């Protein structure tokens, strides 16, 4: 860990889904908001550990995406999670927030997802390209 040049932290979608009861069929604003507080607390602990264990590596924090773009209630929560993550990231110059929610807009879900939530190889390539566009790996 202390020898790494860069860390990529890509967590949160499953946290959001689990806070809603394990699925996205019926959105519970209260449950998701409660879950976000726990997620941000865990994210802070992870980032703090990385910062302490490695004094030089940059940390790229990849944002969440909405796997159900037609659900505006879920879109609001994904936006809210991402905004909170970005606020955490802005606290340290070694951290960079990389948004991904826009990557799947106007895309055919079957073409970019292996199931209802997880990207397939083509979907992950979009995310990878965004990371490479956002950060100059030395």
Provide structural commentary:
- It is a single chain.
- This protein has about 140 residues and is mostly helical.
- It has helices spanning about 15-20, 30-55, 70-90, 110, 120-135, and strands at about 5-10, 60, 95-100.
- The protein has 5 helices and 3 strands, in the order βααβαβαα.
- Strand 2, helix 3 and strand 3 form a beta-alpha-beta unit.
- Helix 1 packs antiparallel against helix 2 (about 30-55) and helix 2 runs parallel beside helix 3 (about 70-90).
- The model has no long low-confidence stretch (mean pLDDT about 95).
Short characterization:
The chain has 138 residues and is mainly alpha-helical. Helix content is 49%, strand content 9%. It contains five helices and three strands.
Sequence-ordered SSE layout with sheet pairings:
Blueprint: E1 6-9, H1 13-19, H2 29-53, E2 58-62, H3 72-89, E3 95-98, H4 109-112, H5 121-134
Parallel strand pairs: 1-2, 2-3
List keywords for this structure.
mainly alpha, 3-stranded parallel sheet, globular
């Amino acid at each position: 860990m202390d020898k790494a040049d860069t860390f990529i932290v890509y967590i949160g979608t499953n946290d959001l889904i689990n806070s809603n009861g394990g699925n996205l069929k019926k959105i519970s604003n209260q449950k998701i908001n409660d879950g976000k507080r726990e997620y941000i607390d865990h994210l802070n602990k992870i980032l703090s550990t990385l910062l302490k264990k490695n004094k030089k590596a940059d940390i790229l924090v990849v944002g969440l995406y909405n796997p159900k773009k037609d659900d505006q209630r879920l879109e609001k929560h994904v936006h809210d999670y991402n905004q909170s993550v970005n606020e955490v990231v802005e606290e340290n110059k070694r951290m960079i927030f990389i948004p991904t929610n826009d990557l799947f807009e106007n895309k055919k879900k079957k073409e970019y997802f292996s199931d209802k939530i997880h990207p397939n190889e083509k979907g992950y390539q979009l995310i990878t390209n965004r990371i490479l566009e956002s950060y100059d790996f030395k």
